[in-house]
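Escalation from tier 1.

The customer reports that the assembly of two entities below gives different structure tokens on two consecutive runs. Tier 1 could not reproduce it. I'm attaching the input and our single run for tier 2 to review.
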Amino acid sequence: MKKLFEKIRNSAPVRNFLLFLAVMGPGIITANVDNDAGGIATYSLAGAHFGYMLLWSLIPITLALIVVQEMCARMAVATGKGLADLIRENYGVKVTFYLMFALFFVNLTNVMAEFAGIAVSLEIFHISKFFSVPLSAFFVWVIVVKGTYKSVEKIFLFACLFYVAYIISGFIAKPDWYEVFQQTLSPKINWNIGYVVMLVGVIGTTIAPWMQFYLQSSIVEKGITPEEYKHLRLDVVGGCVIAPVVAFFIVVACAATLFKAGVTIESAQDAAIALKPLAGRYASWLFAFGLFNASIFAASILPLSTSYSICEGMGWDAGVDKRFEEAPQFFWLYATMIVIGAGAVLIPRFPLLGIMYFSQVGNGILLPFILIFMLSLINNKDIMGEFTNNKILNIITWATVVIIIGLTLVMVVFTFIH
Amino acid sequence: MRLFIYLSEILGRTVQDSQGKTLGKLCDVSMFLTEEVFPRAEGLVVKRGILAGKHAFIHIDNIKSLGKIISLKVGEENVRFQSDPIKPEFSLCRDVLDQQVVDTDDQKVVRVNDVHLLNVDNQLYLGHVDVGLRGIVRRLGWTSFVDSVVKFFSLNSPYLKEEELISWKNSQVLTIGRLRNVLRSDVARQKLSKIPATELADIMEDLDIFERASLFKTFSTDLQRKVFADMANHEKEELIDQLTDREAGNLLENIPADEATDLLNNLPKDKVRHLMRFIHSETSKQLRKLLGYKQDTAGGLMTTEYLCLKQDALVRDAMQLIKDNTEYPGNIFFIYIVDDQNRLVGTTSLRRFINVDENTPVVETRYLSETFVRTDDEMEEVALLLEKYKFSSIPVLNEEDVIEGVITSDDVMEELISLTWKKYKDQL
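Tier 1 run:
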């Protein structure tokens, strides 16, 4: 019997599957954190205010997401270094500093969005934000600094099954599937300021700048060798498909309920209506639970990942297992992100939904600059050796860069006209 | 011209020929790659035009002065610009500035923010690397602004005075030319030899896997063995992956056989076959045998290195045997007495014969009860026996009572600790 097990364990397909499980993680985790508070808010708004009109964009975005994330994974495997490290070593401290400066502020607004998500979701349960936000900030601080994060991560991941609710709800709402497919495959694009800003937001929330730093670092940390790379690629690509599929159904569910009823989202209660077809009068509870999990999951990762990236780029010691005197910059950055991120949300009349949406537009604006650096790095033979990009990948990524910069410019022009 | 200048100050300065005609801007300094403690500059790389532009190499002897404007002794016609990038063997911007180096004095990995050059008679020497905050501020071009802000708040702020410079004597670059080639220079070895092995293992943790391998390769065989022993299991596997099969084979031959088998057990079968070819035939025979046993049985735990004597040996021989093996890192206090077919006759230890007359047959000093395990015994059983008899090692016999190896308590301990860890982690 034991022999038999041994035989099964050593057979090629089983072995491959086991290997896949062993390297699985970074891609799936990144993808799930990708649908954070900002993500849920942006997709909900997209569906509620524009119906199915933005669905088409998810197809090219998925393609770009796969290409970009795979590039990060490849860089991690080929160089064994994080993205910030590579940028510092190849473009010098000046470029790195300003880029990290921008990353810090954009990510700070993202952290605010996560805490806003916590505030909004728990307000549905009538818990005051003055209570929920400081408590959550403290919780995040404790699990990260005390090193229990890794085990809590599994709970977060499991709770991400919540997204299935959107898929079911999307079906039960009986959307006009003909229109859904029509809008997805041959869209009628409506060029106005709101639409363009929303488009940048959807791109920015799906392909967020922080994801590139986070994914690359977590692969480096896992120590994946070039031989294991093909299994890793499966994980990364899988994650890149899951995230937009969830996004697709959030948009569909919101469009089929909110847009059809002509409701504009002004509070979390409104956004929760999208889950009514599934959960009935418990929709807002379900929504609150999902939003809370997404928010706190991302709030545990974002400040930490940002502080790591910045310290990596600037050459400062970093790590939660270090003492304060050993890594003062790291702890200052980390504390600043959490304190300001949570603190801003507590300001009376702070636009909670607004920050969740506009932080994602900020992501979209920063993204092309990160992509330009990634493109330049990944095509450098001295760094990547045989792992450089091929032509198709370059074309897709450059197209992404040009399109986002173009959209950003259109957005600025529109803003000036109005 | 000051004696010491920062690289960031001269980078981007205008370069003029002997007629005062502007040729371009300084963009890199190439260094001689010699065994000297403080490397000397070989020449300057000058860039003309925007974006990729064109580059020219100017030998250091052709420089008249290194002032606000770098002027040359030669005319424009002697400077050849080319469109292909110039790739010196060792250059400051590519290999030192913004890269990680090992600070061999403080024994940690640091990132270089600026380079401090010694300027004597228009010769430049690499003196220090700047790893402090002032270096970053200088590179950003904010020195006077930040200084005045800091002065406004506190005149005696340590920031204003403290330069975090590390002498080049105490710093070691890890890769040159990004080609990940090995630094096998004696200077590197000398600089690193000051660092204790355990510290080196810590330093290695801060490096990426390629730098780690290239640093590891500069070590002597002895140091390699020590550093390797201090590394975590997955780090060992990663490292083996980066070494050539020959290098890995050499390494495996130098570490205790049981550690080597543990490692080989976790590698893919193909890799193991490749490695075996590079391991000395005697060692590989032993390893093959050990690999045949399950990891958590006595056979999988044991090492094939132990001290043994024939039945007719005297206490004198036993003493000599221990003296001859003081260098061996494993357990040397237990000696196993075997017959001609290598069957275990008895076990003795230093404690038993140290006070006995030299000419007594060693067999007489053996323990009265026979303690041993079989190759397929479970690890828990081994642990229980070791604890019961308070032995630090126990022999492993096959069905014919032939001694195959021994298990030392630290091997069992290691396994148990990692098991406990796993359980603990699963609970979390």
